[in-house]
Design goal:
Strand order of the largest sheet: 2-8-10-9-5-6-3-7
Radius of gyration: 17 Å
Helix content: 25-40%
Order of helices and strands: EHEEHEEHEHEEHEE
Number of helices: 5
Structural class: alpha+beta
Shape: globular
Length: 202
């Protein structure tokens, strides 16, 4: 049985360090969970990650064992927003952030498979499991770049994206700031983190 790695087959999961690229992101399916506040504070953010991975791996093994379709579990991703966009480009008041953690899943993962996976891990994960939902996301045209290093060092890159690249190319920001965590930030030194930064534009 072949195993599909969507990080390799989908161009939207590839970015270049130090270079802003315009790409078109297709409609994709995700398991999502919403929250608010500083991700470094633990608590709800950590619980959300546990819930997401628990269901993500259950869906992967269900797909392999019951459907005969194997795939690599995709990396954690995050959609971020704040009432003040400066919180991403200059300040770092993370307490004001709204976030949605998400994990891409193949389009053959149905609502019924998702509900069955959620029920299977409910006892292990607890009530937070009820906050998970299966949705599609269509981002379309986006600017993205590979950021190397600490999350706290992203502000300068995002400032250049917002104030230089976007206006110079006649674009307009829309939607939510999107991050794709190619590194496991629970085990990787901050200076070695690899993160795709993505911003939908018109």
């Amino acid at each position: 049985m072949d195993k599909i790695d969507f990080k390799k087959s989908l161009p939207s999961y590839t970015a270049r360090a130090g270079v802003f690229d315009l790409i078109d992101v297709p409609e994709l399916s995700y398991v999502m969970i919403d929250g608010h506040g500083d991700p470094n504070a633990g608590g709800p953010f950590s619980e959300a990650i546990t819930a997401l991975y628990s269901v993500g791996y259950k869906l992967k093994f269900t797909s392999k064992n019951e459907l005969g379709r194997d795939y690599t579990v995709m990396p954690l991703e995050g959609l971020w927003s704040s009432d003040d966009p400066a919180n991403f480009t200059t300040a770092l008041d993370k307490s004001t952030w709204d976030w949605t953690l998400l994990m891409m899943v193949p389009d053959w993962i149905t609502a019924d498979l998702f509900e069955a996976a959620r029920e299977t891990v409910r006892a292990k994960v607890g009530p937070v499991i009820d906050r998970l939902h299966l949705e599609t996301l269509t981002e379309g045209r986006c600017v993205q770049i590979l950021h190397l290093g600490s999350f706290d060092d992203e502000a300068e890159t995002l400032h250049r994206l917002h104030t230089e690249f976007v206006p110079e190319h006649g674009l307009r920001l829309r939607g939510r700031h999107h991050e794709i965590y190619l590194s496991d930030f629970t085990k990787t030194a901050p200076e070695k983190l690899r993160t795709i930064l993505r911003q939908p534009v018109d």
